[in-house]
Description:
The chain is of the alpha/beta class. It folds into two domains: about 5-215, Purple Acid Phosphatase, chain A, domain 2 (4-Layer Sandwich); about 230-355, no CATH class. It has helices at about 15-25, 45-55, 65-70, 80-100, 130-135, 140-145, 150-155, 215-220, 225-230, 235-250, 255-295, 305-315, 320-330, 335-340, 345-355; strands at about 5, 30-35, 55-60, 105-110, 115, 160-165, 175-180, 180-185, 195-200, 205-210. The strands form two sheets. A five-stranded mixed β-sheet has the order 3-2-1-9-10. Strands 4-5-6-8-7 form a five-stranded mixed β-sheet, with no helix packed on it. Helix 2 links the parallel strand 2 and strand 3 (about 55-60). Helix 9 (about 225-230) packs across helix 10 and helix 10 runs antiparallel to helix 11.
Amino acid sequence: MKTLVIGDIHGCYTELQELLDRVGLSSQDEVIAIGDIVDRGPDSPNVLEFFRTQANARSLMGNHERKHVRSFRGELQPALSQIITGHQLGADGYSSAVSYMARLPHFLDLPEAILVHGFFEPGRSLPDQRPTVIIGTMSGETYLKRQYQRPWYELYDGQKPVIVGHTDYLRTGKPLIYRDRVFGIDTSCCHGGALTGLLLPDFRIFSVPSRRDYWKETKAWYAGIRLATTPDESLSWDDMARLVSQAEKASNSSPSLDERVRRLRSMITVAEEALKNLFDYIAEENDRVLKTLQEEFPFDEMSSREKSRLYGARVGKTPLARFLHRARKGELSLEGLQKAFKKPGDLISFARRIGLLNPSETHDKAS
């Protein structure tokens, strides 16, 4: 019997079927996904259906499956990719899918190799591995970086080869093969790379190219979902403009989406007004402080260092201080001021805090 271990599929059902056709397994052979079978790609429902219904197919738990389980339990907020997969599955289908994902194993110890989705900490036996490490969570990756100065796979000291997914180490469409001991078979299929499988017991590599960057397409297609689920105040200037543009071009618009777009456009208008008001206010305040210092001291005759010290003492450590210093040096610009506030919501909040906007004024006013 042969076993095909497949790297991160991420909803790329077409490439999954192409890979299976290329390998040519028999009915006695087994298919094992290394985890992250869902999210980002175009067809997570069919990928899930395959692994749930095929008698000779199974999957490990990847960090994306873990996110679904935890967000469904209310332990964390779902990311965009989880929201999209939930939308693809529908309410009833999603509940059943999460139940399946919750039962996925964290590792498999095969005769030929150990299989985990994420990483493997050196010096620890398989039962002693941290779940966050072998599943590949951000906290698990941070832990390894703090504990070890070198990549984990260079330190791997297990008796068997280990096969992992989660990270596209080479970003060339090829798997990582480190000293024939560590096999990293995530090759970014959902990002336009390839889907890679490793056939045991011979450790033969098979690969099929991805048709395109599915995640980029999926994010654009589901812009309405992101628009509906991301709070106004969490959107950056670029994100807000892009999402408004995408929503306006979308063919599946709805009254609620149209209303949200109107609010976002209004928020941009208020933020742009606040930006100009703040710029003018800083310029005027800088002129006022300079005039006062020139009246009280021989300010213009002082060295740059003395001017900076005296000016700093006068403006103090108020929220405006960093901008006033830029204005004094002639380095303040509208563009630079906008970059200081990564989100329109941050700028609006700041303007309200220093009294440039009425606290009762909202970004939902008519544009």
